[in-house]
Amino acid sequence: MSEQATVAAPRVKPVETFRGDFTYSNSPEAIRRFPFPFHRDDYMYSVNIEPHDGTPPGSAYAPAFDIDEHYLSEMAERRTVLEEDPKRCQVLPYMMEAQWDTLELMMTSLAADYPEHFSLTCDGDTWTWENRLLDIRDTFTFKDADTLPLEPFEYITRQVQGDFTLHGQRNDMLYMDGGMVTCQADWSLDFDLGMNFYEWHGPVPRAHEMGVFERALKYLLTLKVGSPVRRLNWTMTVNPRMDTSPENYDKWGIDRATITPDNVGELAHLRVELQSLWRLPRSNAILFSIRCYLISMEELATVPKWARRLHRVLRDLPEDLADYKGFIGFRPTVLDYLARYDDGAATSPGGAPD
Amino acid sequence: MSAAGPIPVRVAAIETVSPFIKTFTLEPLDGGLLPAFSGGSHVVVTMQGRDKNHRNPYSLMSSPYERRFYQISVRREDDGRGGSKFLHGNVRVGDELAVSPPANLFAVNELGRRHILIAGGIGITPFLSQLYELRAQGSDYALHYAYRRADDTAFLDRLTAEHGERAHFYESSQGHYVEPGRILADQPLGTHVYVCGPEGLIDTVVTRARRLGWPESHIHAEEFAAPPSGKPFTVVLDKSGDELEIGPDDTVLDVLEDNGYAPDCSCRGGVCGECETAVIAGEIEHHDDYLSEEVKREHSRMMICVSRAASERVVLDL
Ligand code: HEM
Ligand code: FES
After folding, report:
1. How does pLDDT run along chain B (318 residues), one tens digit per residue?
2. Is residue A309 within 8 Å of residue A339, measured between CB atoms?
């Protein structure tokens, strides 16, 4: 992992906010590495899964868990959300082994991908973990939860960007048996806890009938240790708000009515989730990582190919998908904004900037 | 990070357990640690024979808490595909083999209240690793182990020592037979049964459990995730005229990539649809979950990441 991740020491910005005054923004480098999810000018659900194999080098896809300039901001936001609502982190009691599996996977991956920021020293079961970005240095006994300040899953996921869920596999089915979910696109861990793969995907239109979930589940059931996979998902969000949870709908639902032709470039954001799936070795559970990236229309339009393509994708997206994703109301305003950048020129295949 | 390929290992020890069974201890070639695994996992062992490679799945029987080595036990099957004969006859201490990362399709249901493990002969192996976990977690379990003769197995002493009253033995040469019907009859609700061994035993256990009204979710028989392999065949690429040979364990996609082609693909597991390729001539043995049954019957399309040719040659629109 270490040789390929060329972002060995990402520059990390001081804390910015995802609420209130919304000071979050992307640097030009962060824009260039944004995981733009559209490989073509149109979009429909599919089983878009590929190996999470360290490619392409230097991209946001390459590290096991991507750490970027927003690290400190996202970790501060997570602390705030958890203070208000501790139920955002829950793990069923039987999953202790999966908690340790997660901690080990994350510590070894971060230390290998970002040696300047993280290190792990193991002397038998005595482990020393150092996170220089958050100024954490703890020595603990692997598999002895009493030697950590928090349960292992919460301890480590408070130090890694992205939401995470844990899934037990029983009867050829996956169950949502735990998670750390503070930056989600309108779904709730507390509500979904204990549900199976089809149940928690219940609200998604079309995909059930298309057989997408049946095929995806079949594939995941045979996921192997050491061969993680990934996929991209996306939606639109008003303001760079990480926590668009049902629990806080009263705080963000009204944002959608604030979009005007004057502010749309600044307020409307493309929200992309880089999701990776990991078979955990000792527990045989699956860890699902949902790494969220936000980019404003203004920022996105600095890459001509992306503005052209997003215009076409949003314009042609079926009503039921736009409705489910929650932006059908302000779609026309976004389209008017993006249309200015769509000269009708052909776009190159793949998601990378030209 | 690269997708986990086969792990090179060295045979550190071979123990002859009986005239038919040998236990192999495998250590990583680089002297490091092997991937951790869960009880009931198996690995696919690749052996390089003189004329052909063998690839056989075997259950890991060593402790899931031990990462310095794996252990497998192999029964010599004279009528099998040759992998077990090769391990018995040709493999020596110090030889190099390769194992896949562990996979588990026979895991203990962690929410089960009670676990009944029924093993026949060499079918004991997946249970050996599961038993470490069940004991460590303080679970309620019982092992029922049927075998032909006591000298056919070296596991008896160990099982008695570690599991005492929880282990029950049935030696058929002494007239003792395991009776799944009776074992299953008076189990409390919420019990899970696991079976591994000869087909006859698996059938009996599964049928009995069903007849007693056990839910399918509480009946477990060992499965291996064997990658699709089969007869070699030739792929003809219609556009370039290239002819490529696909070996028993290769995929068309891999061979195309090895030869400098870059066909569309994504999941490499027969579900995403990206690698769908038109077939101009030839018959296909489909292994994907993407194409409809109708298209499959027509042999007009092929998912080149998992499917193979049923005919000796197949002409693709590439
Ligand atoms: C264990 C792994 C997974 C978890 C935990 C998960 C979780 C979720 C959740 C919570 C939602 C939101 C549902 C709602 O509206 O309440 C969702 C949506 C969705 N999921 Fe998954 N998912 C997983 C794997 C997959 C996979 C492998 C696919 C592959 C096709 C997939 C496809 C989708 C799609 C298409 C949507 C709709 C998204 C949108 O339009 O915004 N999911 N998933
Ligand atoms: S690559 Fe996904 S079906 Fe072949």
Report:
1. 334 678 999 999 999 988 889 999 999 999 889 999 999 999 989 888 777 778 888 999 999 989 999 999 998 887 666 788 899 999 999 999 999 889 898 999 989 999 999 999 889 999 999 999 999 989 999 999 999 887 666 688 889 999 999 999 999 989 999 999 999 998 998 999 999 998 899 999 999 999 999 999 999 998 776 656 788 999 999 999 999 999 888 899 999 999 999 999 899 889 999 999 999 999 999 999 999 999 999 999 999 999 999 999 999 999
2. no
Q: Which residues, other chains included, contact A296 with Cβ-Cβ below 8 Å and sequence gap of 6+? A: A25, A26, A240, A265, A266, A267, A268, A269
Instruction: Give the residue extent of every domain in chain B.
Output: 7-99, 114-222, 233-316
- Residue A200 CB–ligand 1 contact under 6 Å: yes
Atom of ligand 2 at shortest range from CA of A49? 2
The CATH homologous superfamily for domain B7-99 is Translation factors (2.40.30.10)
The DSSP code for B19 is: S
| Ligand at shortest distance from the CA of A245 | 1
A279 C-beta closer than 6 A to ligand 1: no
Domains B7-99 and B114-222 share a fold: no
Query: Quick one: which of B246, B312, B243, B237 has its CA closest to B282?
Result: B312
Domain B233-316 in this protein, CATH class: alpha beta
